[in-house]
Structures are given as C-alpha cells and as structure tokens.
Amino acid sequence: VRIAALWLALACAALMAGPAAARKLVLFPTPYFPLTQSPPLATTIALPNLLRGPVESRELIDVGMDEHGSVRSIAVTQRLVLHQTADYRLTIPAPVRDVEPAAGSQSVPGQREGAILWQGFASGRKVLAARATLDPAAAVSSLPLRLGLSVRIAGKTLGPTPRTGPLDVSLHLHNTTRVSVTTFSGDGDRSTLAKILDTLRRDPGGRSLGRSTYVGVEGLTPVRTAVDAPLRVTGRLRFAAGTVEGGTTSFATVLGGSRPLDRTIHLRGKATGVRAPHLELTVSPVFPVEELRPPSGRTWAQAVHSNGRLNGRRLLAHAIEVSLRLARVRQYRTFLLDPDPNGQSAARYDYRSLPRPAVVRPVRAPASSGGLGPVPVALIAVGAVLGAGALVVLWAHS
Amino acid sequence: MRRAGSLLGVCVALLTACGSQPHSEQTLVFAVDASFSKTPYVADTIANGASVALLELQQNGPLRIGDTTYRLEVKRFDTGGSPATAVSNVRRSAAEHAIAILDDGTGVDGGWEIAREAHVPIGILYQGGIDLVDPAKRPNVFRIVPTDHGVAFRLAEYLVPKGLKLALLHDDSGYGQEGAAALDQAFAHNPEAVATRLTLPSGASDLAPQLLAARRSGATAVLVWASAPVIAKALIAARSSGWNVPFYTPPAGEDPLVRQELADHPEWVDGLTFASGRLTAEGGPAPFNVFESKYRAAFGLEHVGVKTTEGNSVIQPPEYAMYSYDFVRLVVAAIQSVGGAHDRKAVLSAMNQVTIRGANGDERGFNVKNHEGVVDDDVYFARFDDMTYRPVKDDPLSATLPEISQVGP
Which helix (H) or strand (E) holds A220? Predict the structure, then answer.
C-alpha cells in the first residue's frame, strides 16, 4: 500500500506541477524507488534499525522444486558485512521458520516471528551471516522465476519407476518480475537526462542519484508502462538413472529486458530406463547495461550534443524506462532486506529439484495378529448402536 | 407512569451493567531466589532493581491490563548459597504462582524443569555459566548478564594482542570452574599466551603459595576468575610479595568487597582491570543516569565503604539492579502483549517476542534462538584508579563509553 501511495504521489507530483506546456521540475524515478512492496520480503514486524553503514549484502536463495517445477522450499543465506566502529541492531523481515549462523559469521542471529535479528558492536569490520529457512507459501510470490516441467516417455508422464521409450521433456521458464506502473512522458531536459543516464551507467544501483533527482519536463502526460527485471538463467537437466540419446541438457538464456519473458526448452530423444530428472537452475537479476550504452560517443552527454535526433521526448522515455528497470533489478538483488539503503547488494537464486518423497504404503495387518476382521467389527458396531437405541427407549418409558 | 419509570430505571441499570467490563484483581509475585545471607551485594541489588521496576510500573496505581488490575510484588527467597535450598525456593515460587523467578543462577540447574511445568520464566541475573541457558532445552530460562563465554572471549581478544604470558587462576567454586572452562575455550587457539593454569582454594586464608607458583611460571599478568573474596586474597598475596603484574578479572572484580578488603592498600587496587557488561549505550549515559536516580531515590546511595585520596566516599553504580529492572519490565511487556497474565503459557511464549528500552538506553529482548539479554559484543573493560573505575581506552568498544560517576558525599 505504501509503495502504491508513493507511486501515486510521484505521478501526481509530476502532473500537478503546472500547465502542461510549461517546463516544470519533476521528481525523476530513480532506481531507489521500489515498484512493489516485495521484494525485499516484508512482514508485520517493525523495529528500528541502528547502524552506521555502509553495509554490503550478498544473498544466495535456494529454491527447492518438485518434479513439476513447483516450489516446495526456500532457504536464504544472507551475508552482511558491516564497516563501522559502533553499535548495530538490525531487523531483517522474513517469514522465517528457522535461522542458524552461516559459515564465517562473527555473531549469532536471533529469530522472532517474522524477522531475523542481529545486535552487537562492530569494531571496524564485522561479518553477519545467516542461513534462514523460510515459509515457502509466504515467500514464493517474491521469486523472480516460475517453472513448469513436464517429462513424458512414450506419451505418458514419468512416474517413480524407470521407463523406456521416446522422451519428451518440456521446461517452461517465466520471468515473474513484470509490473505495470504509472509514470509520465513529455519533453525532458536533454542535458539533465544525459547526466542522469551517464550517472546510471557508472552506478546502475542508483546510489549516486539517490531519491532527490529532478528533471525539467514540458508537456507532462501520464502513461502506464510495464517494467521487469532481466534475468540471466543458466541450467542443466540430468537424469540420475538410465540413458537419453539426443538433445541437450544444458541451457543459458536471458528472460526480460529487451527479450521475451518466457521461454520453453524442449528435450527429445530416446530414453532407456530413466527416472525423474534432476533440474538445476541459476538465476541472476542483471542490470541492463546495453540499454545504458549511449548510441554514439563515449557518454550520453556527447551523444546528446552530437545527435540532434535524440530529442527530449525520446530521451525522457528511455531514461525512465531504464531507471525503472534498474529499480526492479535492485529489488530482486535484495530478496531479504539490505538494512543499509545505500549498501551494495547482490542476490543469486539457485533452483534445484528436491528428491521425490518416499511413498509410504499402508501395511496390511497379518492374518494371525489376533485382531478382529472388518466384518466382526462392523457387526459389533451395528449391535452397539441398536443396543444403545433400545436403552434409550427403555429409559424414555421408565 | 411510575411503572414506566421503574421499567426505564431497570433498563438503564441493565445497560450500565452491560457497558462496564467485569473487573478482577490479581497479585503477581516476582520471586527473587538469591543468596541474601552469603552474597548480599548481589542478591540485594537484584531484588532492589526489580523493586524499582515495580515502583515505576505502579507509580500511578496498580497496573491495569485488559479487564484485570494487577498488583506487582517482589518476594525474597534466601538460598544461603545452597543449590538445594535454591531449588526448594523455585518449587515454592511455582506453587505460589509467581509470575517470574529472578535467580542469581544457583537454583537453575535443579529448578528450571519445576518452573517450566508451571510456565514460569526464570531470569538469571548474575551467573554466566555457558550451560545454564539453552533456548531449545530450557525454553523458560533467560539471562540478562554477560555470559562467561562472552567475558572469556572478550578477555582473550583484549589480552592476546598485548603479548602477555597469563597465569589463568580460578577458584574451586562453581563460578570459578565455569569460568575456567570458558577461559579454556577462549584461549584454545592461543596456548602461547598462557603461562600456567592454577586452582585457588576458596577456603584458604592465604594464597601466597599459589601466587608464588604463578610467578615462577614466568607469567607477566594474572587473570583471576573467582569470587570477590578470592580475588582480593590473590591481589593481596601478589602485591604483598612485590609482584606488581597486571591483574584481570571477570565482573566479580568490581564487587565492593574487593576494595573493602584492600582498603588499607588502595594502591594495590590501582590497575586492576575487569570485564563486565556495558552500563551505557551508544546514545550516552543519560538513560543510565535516569535509572540510577530512580534507584537512589528508592534505596539511597550504595556506599562501597572506601574513600578516594581526596576523601570522597566511593559509590557503587547499580549494575546488577539494571539487569533485574530490565527483566521485570520484559515480563510485564510480555504480559501486556498477550492481554494479561491469565494464560501463563502465552506469557512465557511472548517473552521471545517483546523488546523494551533497557535501563542503559539500549534495546533489550530475547528471541526464539537467543535467551541472552547481554550480547557478547557488549562486554567492556574498566580499570581501577583511586578506588573508582573507568572504561579503558585501548579497546574499541570501551573507548566509546563514557565514565560513570562513582563518588558521593
């Protein structure tokens, strides 16, 4: 709700800045403005953070999937590096089920309902590393990629037993980061926009621009636009048992940005005695560096100076599009909150197939166990009911 | 008409009755299980800190939560230093439906299960033994005092870079043995820093033989983990023989008894450095000073019984009182968070979810994974000079801390 209100305010501020024809200063949507509430994951817990900064955040999100690609588990290893000689008290909101210190941690994390806690004193540099197991139902909607996996052999879905025959694997990947936001168009100040783009090129995280960057715009108009975070996806599909002839099992692709959000990977061949495959995927939100490259010259300032066709309207649209995309990437680089809004953060998502759960079959009781069979039990039950009814009738007439 | 009027009256009475909440009163007892007869400084300070919290919470009358009014009381149970008596006290407290037990640590090993059955939280406010607190195994045991682990590791962190050869001495009490175990862990990676390890008999009147052995080991400094009387005897034995190496101690070194025992030779106390939990947060000394004022308003100045060279009486800051004050307020915060003390299990569970602003100005609270209210990082070092102590300047945390006034009229 807060995020929606923020974007509404931004759009209103832009549109109420004055008559459409006049040039007005408008707050530019830098990558510092998140486009949705999550990520980073949010919960109801709210305790103030105490830190000096800067804090670096590195996260590895381990996503466990079933044989269809549905998410079954999520665990995050977050490594925070503090650079300060001062107290710290950090609350990292997360639907956490369990948390343990991760390798290299110089302190032990605490756990409350909806948060990971850190508290202590850092004398210079301190590493706080935690491995948190999350409630997948509460965190799955903040993952950047959704998968669908279908494995068929001889036209039938592969089950737990090894099968042989023509293999048809279909792996569908979908980038889930796209959102629709209200922003604005108009004729922007070219030199300011060139400076903004050059700054973003040097610092795609947007720290240098912060939250207070303005641009002069004429002819403001509200527009809706869709924004996503480009994802670099590399993966491998392997069969633990049996052999597969033909087809490839490794792939690499980029989803989103200037490319489609979806991709389906097919693998066909001849399978002999194969079981359910094991899928491994690594997903990294990537800054769209190619969109930050000026069309000519070494900088956007040079490009604007030398290229008259790069008008203020096109430049504003491009700068907003790129900046919003960077904002989206920035969000997915902090699946768990980086407590320092100015900190450097990075995240990688590792999707892995989980072992198929063992099937527990009911055990039939041996005939010689001495128990009563189902028929005598049913007869006793009927008799008990009839007997109880008779007692009630007797009591009523007594 | 009269009939209609009386009917109206009945209706008004019924509506009034419906509008007001049913009200009940309850007394909540905070049981202090400590050695009032053997170590009165610690026990009294714990009980007094709890009383200050209750005075504050009830300054405008009994505490009202939901539809219940709570009268809060502190009840003292003397252990006489006996674990068996301490456990017996825990049993009595649980039977009397105490809302919490404030313990110096003596009764915890034997009594925590009894308290758990009654969903009574135990707050350890003196002993720092590593095994006393374990959120998984002992979910009702909490602690607000520096842990032995924290003190030992901070001592190692502080002393090893100095290149000292340490004589690690501990007494034969439970406190001393727990400390020795913590020191063994802390110095495990730096055996070169340890010249010798010796046990000091608590009952001995003279520790000269042990200190002589330490001196002959080639030690260039002494770290004594012992009760206050043993620390005093160790200092006397060393200094009286002319061995003027630096002395380091855990929090017991700041016990007034050490200075009282050495009142005839105040210069022997100079340089004694102890590790303890910081009294002030990063925000400055103001919150602690406020707490100290409340404490003194209730219980007066706590005179150590010695004077500075200028003739000023030395005052002991209410350090352990700060911890019991915070623990009581955390229990009350837990009660408030679940809407009352009727469901003791819910209150105990809420102890993991609440945070208060502590007497030193820092946030204080427990969580599912950690029942320690003082984090290891918060252990600082202070050095005596002229019977008062001040934070050292050669440790990053201690160097940031202000001095606390310790002289009175």
Answer: strand A214-227
Spatial strand order in the sheet of A145-153: A156-157, A145-153, A163-175, A262-274, A243-245
Top mean pLDDT of A33-37, A227-231, B55-59 is at A227-231
Q: Model pTM?
A: 0.80
CB B277 within 8 A of CB B222: no
CB contact under 8 A, B355 and A107: no
Other C-beta atoms closer than 10 Å to the C-beta of A386 total 10
Q: How far apart are the first and last CA of chain A?
A: 69
Closest partner residue to A47 (CB to CB) among B281, B355, B370 is B355
Residues on chain A touching B281 (C-beta within 8 angstroms): 87
In order of A151, A164, A165, A277, A365, the CA distances from A158 in angstroms are 6, 10, 11, 9, 31
Query: What SS3 string covers B107-157?
Result: CHHHHHHHHHHCCCCEEECCCCCHHHCCCCCCCCEEECCCCHHHHHHHHHH
Q: Given a cut of 70, is residue A383 above it in pLDDT? A: no
Return d(Cα A142, Cα A158) in angstroms, integer: 30
Q: What's the rounded Cα separation, in Å, for the pair A158 and A163?
A: 7
> How far apart, in whole angstroms, are the C-alpha atoms of residue A247 and residue A250?
10
Q: Is the ipTM beyond the 0.85 threshold?
A: no
Q: Which residue did the predictor score with more confidence, B312 or B11? A: B312
Which residues 282-321 of B have a C-beta within 8 angstroms of A?
Answer: 282
Output b/e per residue, A251-262; b: 16+ Cβ within 10 A: beebbbbeeebe
Per-residue pLDDT, A29: 94
Is the separation of the CB atoms in B319 and B279 below 8 Å? yes
- State the DSSP H helix or E strand holding residue A26, giving kind and residue range, or none if neither: strand A24-27
Bond from prior residue into B409 cis (ω within 30 degrees of 0): no
**C-beta atoms of A110 and B368 within 8 A:** yes
B337 reaches A (C-beta below 8 A): no
Tokens describing residue B279: 């009294």
Q: Which tens digits make up the pLDDT trace of B322-336?
A: 999 999 999 999 999
Question: Which of A111, A112, A120 is the closest to B375 by Cβ?
Answer: A120
What phi-psi label fits residue B136: left (phi over 0), alpha (psi between -120 and 50 degrees) or beta? alpha
- Name every chain A residue with its beta carbon within 8 A of the beta carbon of B377: 107, 119-122
> Smallest Cα–Cα separation from A236: which of A300, A158, A171?
A171
Average pLDDT over residues A94-121: 95
Residue range A347-378, pLDDT digits in tens: 999 999 998 766 655 555 554 444 444 444 44
Count of pairs with CB atoms under 8 A, one residue in A, one in B: 48
